[in-house]
User: Fold these one by one.
Assistant:
Number 1:
Amino acid sequence: MASAVRPAQPAASPETGRPELGRPDLGRVWWVRSGLEILGGRLAIAGQDAEALAREHGTPLFVYDRRRLAENAERLIAALDRAGLHHRVRFALKANPDPAALAALRDLVGIDACSPGEVLRALKCGWPAEDISYTGTNVSERDLDVLLAYPIHLNLDAISQIERVGRRLATAGGRRRPPIGLRINPGAGAGYNEKLAYSGARPTKFGIYEDRLDEALEAAARFGLPVDTIHVHVGSGWLGDGLEAFEAAIGRVAGIARRLRADGHPIRELNVGGGLGVPARSEERPVDPDAYAAALRRALGDLVEAGVVVGSEPGDYLAKDSAILLGEVVTVEERGGTTFVGLDIGWNVNCSYFIYRYAQEFVPCRAPDAERTQTVTVAGHINEAGDVFAEDYPLPPVAEGDILALLNAGGYHQAMSSTHCLRPHAPAIFLDR
Ligand SMILES: Cc1ncc(COP(=O)(O)O)c(C=O)c1O
């Protein structure tokens, strides 16, 4: 068993009973930022000692630095402003539907919803219907019972979906013919990996391909639905080096928007989806928001001068690095030459490697910047061989009983949690700096 690094425990504060923390030690590791720091040699989130939170609330535990959600939104909005774009940023609610997380974004952005439940959640959390854009797939009549009950904007991603919506509005007997968006599949995409590219050479289930665009427009015209938005989501998790592929895909979609405008369609928004990734390891390159905005500026060109609004609907970019997931090391054991570090966390609360193959970074709360001297596999407590979080992974020495923090646990972690193996959901606490 590896021996643990145990720096002296700082003295407890007489007021809070928690360890008294020193001044931030910024810049020694790649992930340190305001709100996620090394204080007194220990990991602190929103100014609070991470291990103390784990001991107080138990593990696994999500801990949010709520201010980070707003900071991420503000950074993106500022970059779009600087590039001179007319824009509308909407949070992809699927990334984190917790009302406590949504509250941090309520006054900054609109909402991208992809299910009736998400629409109802956004309405309940205070977003007016007009600030909600819906882009779903395989939409049923039951879905439409809810979706058509509110004046939300719909982006439709199949010809049959346009016809289904058209039929429903026609049979409702009213004169309501709201403008719709068309989700396009440009056959070019970007993503953290192949699985996360939603459009590309391989046909995917999303969007209307260019070769059937005229049919889609005819269907919309048949039902009297004006087309005011072109939507695309080319994929998720792409990083700095994916920006070029993203720009190329948006360039193709901008060409479609131009064509439709020339044909008299009242296109007022080009919704470029989400997809901006967040680095999980020191070697991953972040997306520079100014470079993102500049890429959009170039791809849209004259459409910007024509007043076309850029819709951007990031999920992970706003939420991912707003939380950590704390877990206890319950096993450190060598098997067949591999050291396994077993945690009391399962893929039921941390599916991001299991499902998406996103890299994961673990940080020991007592020694966040300790040298990573061993190579391990970090695994979970679900009875499945695939329940691992990091393989051939450099980690500082750890021992059973230590608390590890998984970084980047604010997007799609809580949202996708299940009770598989009857392992419960992990509770979440939201801290305000
Ligand atoms: C249509 C649409 N918009 C936005 C998003 C948000 O993606 P991300 O969290 O990668 O920004 C998704 C994710 O699947 C999506 O399908």
Number 2:
Amino acid sequence: MSSELLNKITISIVEGRPDETVDLTRQALVDGLEPLTIIDEGLTVGMNIVGDKFQTCEYYLPHLIIAASGMKQAMEILEPELQSRQQEAESAGVVVIGSVAGDIHEIGKSLVGTMMSASGFQVHDLGVDVPTEVFIAKVKETGADILGLSALLTTTMTVQRQVIRELEEAGIRDQVKVVIGGAPISQEWANTIGADGYAEDAVGSVELAKQLVV
Ligand code: B12
């Protein structure tokens, strides 16, 4: 039963057994589950539970680190699968993406980058804790169509606004569409800081990017 397997994946994340997460992820692929189903209905459900337990002080930082390790190892298996499902042949556009300065959360950002790449975008993933000036320089260098800014902390979401301001100061704000995302981000925040779009998840990010480059 695929739902049983997905539930086992969720539990292995919540209970911090990365090796089991990896084995179950492999098994799910063999059973014919789609990589995105494994991510959204198995792994991410587990990460959200871990996040909630951290918030209520039932879990501490080591729990977060172990859970992230399980998800990252599973993603290493799933990313090539996502890539191989690429449908578009031509480049849909150039994307620069990264987690903003002060933010080291990388899993969601990397997933968005992988999905965009699998959908035909040429993606430059700058990693995590990316200084604002590095984003600006890369947008200039690549002539990017889209700049994706990830922030998972309420303390780093303000950096997204700072990046937009610096794009304005550099005189290149109207040359690139800025899309933002991350757990605390909302459409309202995107409107407040003058971003071109917000997406809740990786699938939504691809749809948004495609709309914006038309
Ligand atoms: C794993 C994790 C960590 C790991 C990260 C490991 C890694 N290599 O990435 C570690 C242990 C390092 C960590 C550290 C910290 N964390 Co943390 N962490 C999490 C956790 C549990 C899961 C995040 C995750 O990977 N989710 C799975 C992915 C797939 O989802 P996602 O990241 O949300 O991404 C999706 C969308 O948001 C969207 N998206 C993401 N980026 C982008 C970008 C664009 C452009 C678009 C369009 C969309 C988009 O699409 C993605 C795919 O669907 C969250 C809880 C949660 N529910 O988010 C807390 C959480 C984010 N962390 C939190 C905290 C407090 C911290 C620490 C401050 C803890 C501490 N005391 O040190 C530090 C801060 C470190 C720093 N400076 O960045 C809080 C933030 C609270 C807040 N409101 O600010 C959370 C919410 C936990 C909680 N409930 O309290 N963390």
